[in-house]
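Consider the tokenized backbone below.
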């Protein structure tokens, strides 16, 4: 399944069969290397929160797993972000920018390979975010991110969606080597990307954004 440039798709994170977040994303390119999408500031989003409105990162995981959950609608208030899902790889690479649109750093999001779906006029890609990440600076130096959250959640395998800690860390180390070498996509590709001015974010998520997950 290939998406078309300019197509609006749903980028969704799945946690043990539940939607963790949903973000509309505009397809930049989809080819043999992988899928590149653009998430604009102000895009409508949903996030899974606990019954009291707090997100998962606002409480210990020991508390999170005892709560009931609901979906909270909002807007993407962070900087616009470019996301690349390499074909078949267990990670994505994000390009973060400042308010002026200048490149700041890469962000390696470790995740299960994306599962694509199409449902009538709507399509998307579902991933299982594995929480451990790597921040890669413009000089290709790097640092692990969210190691504490990763370790905390691994202690509860009956509730956690990460099944193989060693595989997650191995994928992180593999991508770190690529970054240190300055190889694609850490070679400057897309660092100067500018979106099509016609790509305004939708006013709301389209019907079907909450279809059953294809992953997780």
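A designed sequence for it:
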């Amino acid at each position: 399944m290939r998406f078309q440039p300019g197509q609006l798709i749903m980028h969704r994170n799945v946690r043990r069969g539940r939607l963790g977040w949903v973000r509309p994303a505009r397809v930049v390119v989809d080819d043999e290397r992988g899928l590149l999408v653009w998430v604009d500031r102000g895009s409508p989003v949903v996030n899974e929160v606990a019954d009291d409105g707090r997100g998962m990162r606002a409480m210990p995981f020991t508390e999170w797993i005892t709560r009931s959950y609901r979906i909270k609608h909002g807007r993407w208030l962070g900087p616009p972000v470019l996301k690349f899902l390499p074909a078949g790889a267990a990670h994505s690479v994000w390009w973060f920018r400042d308010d002026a649109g200048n490149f700041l750093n890469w962000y390696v999001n470790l995740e299960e390979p994306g599962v694509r779906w199409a449902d009538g006029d709507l399509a998307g890609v579902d991933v299982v975010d594995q929480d451990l990440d790597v921040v890669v600076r413009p000089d290709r130096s790097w640092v692990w991110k969210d190691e504490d959250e990763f370790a905390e959640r691994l202690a509860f395998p009956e509730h956690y969606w990460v099944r193989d800690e060693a595989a997650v860390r191995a994928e992180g180390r593999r991508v770190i080597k690529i970054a240190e070498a300055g190889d694609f996509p850490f070679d400057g590709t897309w660092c100067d990307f500018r979106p099509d001015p016609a790509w305004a974010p939708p006013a709301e998520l389209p019907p079907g954004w909450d279809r059953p997950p294809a992953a997780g």
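The radius of gyration is 17 Å.
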